[in-house]
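Cross-check.
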Amino acid sequence: MKKVRFGIDIDGTVTCPSSLLPHINKAYSLNLTLDDIKEYDLTQAFDVDQKQFFDWYVTVEDHIYDTSPPQQFAKHILAQWKAYYELYYISARGQHVYDTTEKWFHREDIPYDHIELIGSHHKIETAKKFHVDAFFEDKHDNAVDIHEELDIPVLLFDTPYNRKPIPNGVIRVYNWQEADDWIKHHFPQKSIIH
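Predicted model, tokenized:
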């Protein structure tokens, strides 16, 4: 029997959505908290030139990805899911940080079947290519677009920057435990016969 396959975003979904903030606060002498971030575009939260911010980000992104902590319970729940589901991580990170990303998964002991770094927030084609049965995301428009285009459930991990209305089929969850409860109800874990 074919396992159910999940498409899972990495940043802000598996990792803490506040992972970037200590780096931004240090670089720009700020004191931002996650509650200050009302838009996915972080530069909306403080006065900074977007090009300058991008240039800075490129120089530190490898370090940020290497030091991002996982969300609470993510590791435990994903480890449980590994026996029952296929875990396909689909991220907007670029291919140039693949080694850092893979090392992070190994060091944090987070299981995966596949990691796809597409270098873009447009994840529909990749989710379609891998035939995922559900998706996990923190970016509001991604969650809505993936659900509407692929007609699959998308679990949207709540953050201050994604609190716009959502259609039926996009399920807002507040932590990995809620995600686990929803998944166990809608994709029951069947005994795996080897």
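The CA atoms of residues 8 and 89 lie 5 Å apart. The chain has one domain: 1-194. Passed to J.P. for a second look.
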